[in-house]
């Protein structure tokens, strides 16, 4: 067996440590491929700079042998979160009547820039589960419209009581 053999990958796809030999000795030491401080910094940056405005998520985990597991949970929007609905989404909900095309909603809001409308109004409202597409299988359909969900109606009733 050759000592210059490249490390194999673990079942999680992470490289295994390189064995290194101490000069003038038959002893060897195993050291990680990446310095511990570098991995720690990368993990901290991943957590600190995650986009928490998105409801998308999932689970990321490293090799369990290293003992690191980070979980990003997704789930229902709680009352605490719905109270933090942006002013833009609130305006959107108040102009919604039955099913409406994107252009109709934009017109009622007095907005002209389509991309800004999608990012600041439409997507956050959909991610919060307050509105939905009438044709979810074809998001780019010319016949696509949007309507309030039960959650959206309930949210409007709650805000009107205040």
UniProtKB/TrEMBL annotation:
Region (Disordered) residue spans: 1-22
Every Filamentation induced by cAMP protein Fic-like C-terminal domain range: 87-149
Record field: compositional bias (Polar residues): 1-13
Domain of life, per lineage: Bacteria
InterPro entries in UniProt: Fic-like_C, RecG_C_sf
Name of the protein described by the UniProt record: Filamentation induced by cAMP protein Fic-like C-terminal domain-containing protein
Naturally occurring in which organism (per UniProt): Pelodictyon luteolum
Organism taxonomic ancestry: Bacteria, Pseudomonadati, Chlorobiota, Chlorobiia, Chlorobiales
């Amino acid at each position: 067996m050759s000592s210059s053999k490249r490390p194999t990958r673990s079942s999680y796809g992470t490289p295994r440590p390189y064995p290194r030999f101490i000069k003038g000795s038959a002893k060897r030491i195993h050291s990680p491929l990446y310095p511990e401080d570098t991995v720690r910094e990368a993990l901290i940056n991943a957590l600190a700079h995650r986009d928490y405005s998105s409801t998308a998520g999932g689970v990321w985990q490293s090799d369990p042998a290293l003992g690191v597991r980070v979980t990003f949970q997704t789930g229902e929007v709680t009352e605490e979160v719905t109270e933090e609905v942006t002013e833009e989404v609130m305006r959107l909900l108040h102009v919604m009547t039955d099913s409406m095309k994107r252009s109709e909603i934009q017109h009622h809001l007095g907005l002209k820039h389509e991309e800004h409308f999608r990012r600041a109004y439409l997507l956050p409202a959909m991610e919060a589960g307050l509105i939905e597409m009438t044709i979810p299988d074809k998001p780019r359909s010319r016949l696509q419209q949007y309507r309030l969900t039960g959650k959206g109606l309930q949210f409007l009733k709650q805000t009107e009581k205040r």
